[in-house]
Write a structure and sequence with these properties.
- By secondary structure, the chain is an all-beta fold.
- The protein is built from no helices and six strands.
- A three-stranded antiparallel β-sheet has the order 4-1-6, with no helix packed on it. Strands 3-2-5 form a three-stranded antiparallel β-sheet, with no helix packed on it.
- It is globular and about 30 Å long.
- It starts with 15 loop residues before the first strand and ends with a strand.
Length: 72
C-alpha cells in the first residue's frame, strides 16, 4: 500500500482476517481502537467488527493479509 493509501472508509463483512507487516507502517482501526503496526507486528480479528486501515508512513507498506472467505 502506497503512502496515504487507505480502505476508503469503515468495512464490515463476514469472515476473519489476519496479517503480518513486512515493511512500512499500517494503521489498523478495529471497533474504534487504533493500532499503529510496524514490521514484525501481526494482527487478527473477526471481519464483522467495524474496521479500516491506512498507511500513515512515507514509504510503501507491505503486508501479508489473509481473509476468509476471500473478499477480493
Amino acid at each position: 500500500m502506497e503512502p496515504g493509501g487507505h480502505s476508503g472508509g469503515t468495512l464490515r463483512h463476514e469472515g476473519e482476517e489476519c496479517g503480518y507487516v513486512l515493511e512500512g507502517q499500517l494503521e489498523l482501526v478495529v471497533d474504534d481502537e487504533r493500532h499503529l503496526l510496524e514490521p514484525g507486528d501481526s494482527f487478527s480479528f473477526d471481519s464483522d467488527r467495524a474496521h479500516s486501515y491506512r498507511n500513515p508512513g512515507k514509504v510503501t507498506a507491505r503486508v501479508i493479509w489473509i481473509n476468509t472467505p476471500p473478499t477480493y
